[in-house]
Specification:
This is Translation factor SUI3. The protein is of the alpha+beta class. It has helices at about 15-20, 55-65, 90-100; strands spanning about 30-35, 40-45, 70-75, 80-85, 105-110. Strand 3 and strand 4 (about 80-85) form a beta hairpin.
């Protein structure tokens, strides 16, 4: 028999790439991620928006546009993060481009 070296992942950390980098924006990119909660429930997180934007106003518009709930979380290492209920990755990226907050090539979508 042939011996194979297989590593089984223990847990998935969606912010592992952001922790490896030294800046909060990671070269001007906006990272849109999905976090699995329990069952079919999930969270969409938006990290890396410019600091001059009002996160609360952006969140209010996102919640109104997608009919979902959300909040702004302050993280020590990553700065402010917007969390939204459900899988809103594509909708959020389209909204940010349409609103003129970021360019399409500045968005990185992570997830399944």
């Amino acid at each position: 028999m042939v011996e194979l070296e297989i590593q089984i992942p223990t847990t998935f950390d969606p912010f592992a790439e952001a922790k490896d980098s030294d800046s909060t924006g990671t070269a001007g990119y906006v990272h849109i991620r999905i976090q699995q909660r329990n069952g079919k429930k999930s969270l969409t997180t938006v990290q890396g928006l410019k600091k001059e934007f009002s996160y609360e106003k952006v969140l209010k518009d996102l919640k109104k546009e997608f009919c979902c709930n959300g909040n702004v979380v302050q993280d020590k290492e990553l700065g402010k993060i917007i969390q939204l209920q459900g899988d809103q990755r594509k909708k959020v990226s389209q909204f940010l481009v349409k609103a003129g907050l970021v360019m399409k090539d500045q968005i990185k979508i992570h997830g399944f």
